[in-house]
Specification:
This protein has six helices and two strands. With about 140 residues, it is mostly helical. Helix 3 packs antiparallel against helix 5, helix 4 packs parallel to helix 6 and helix 5 packs across helix 6. The N and C termini lie far apart (about 60 Å).
């Protein structure tokens, strides 16, 4: 299924096509650059799939957003390639989304909950509060 999706995307831009695009850069060139590099964004998004619980479609959406940001900000007069620049921007966008979504690991705990450790000893959560000691 992943390969079917990638096959439906536009082909990757060749180096010659990129140089021609850079030579005639105008205010609409970023659209061509973004469209022809959708495979890059999809590949980067799929690399995040196994490390998060976020659905692949959402990862792709965020990756495409990063791709558009990269295409709009790209300066063809610089000495780096678009794919290098776009990879950084796409990964930053995905990482930012994951940080925003990240829930606090203890958000579902209550002070009235009980904790049972590996030795089957039971504690109440309030036992862990500072100043609460049974001596």
């Amino acid at each position: 299924m992943q390969n079917d999706y990638l096959d439906s995307l536009p082909p990757v831009m060749t180096e010659e096509e990129a140089q021609n695009l850079y030579g005639g850069w105008d205010s609409q060139s970023w659209k061509v650059l973004a469209e022809r590099n959708m495979r890059l964004a999809a590949k980067i998004a799929s690399s995040y799939e196994s490390t998060t619980s976020v659905e692949l479609e959402e990862l792709r959406g965020v990756a495409y957003l990063g791709l558009v940001k990269a295409a709009k900000r790209f300066d063809p007069t610089k000495k780096y390639s678009f794919s290098t620049f776009a990879t950084i921007v796409i990964r930053n966008e995905l990482n930012y989304m994951l940080r925003r979504r990240k829930q606090h690991i203890y958000s579902d705990l209550s002070i009235d909950d009980q904790y049972i450790n590996q030795r089957n000893e039971s504690y109440e959560m309030q036992d862990f509060l500072p100043g609460h000691y049974d001596l």
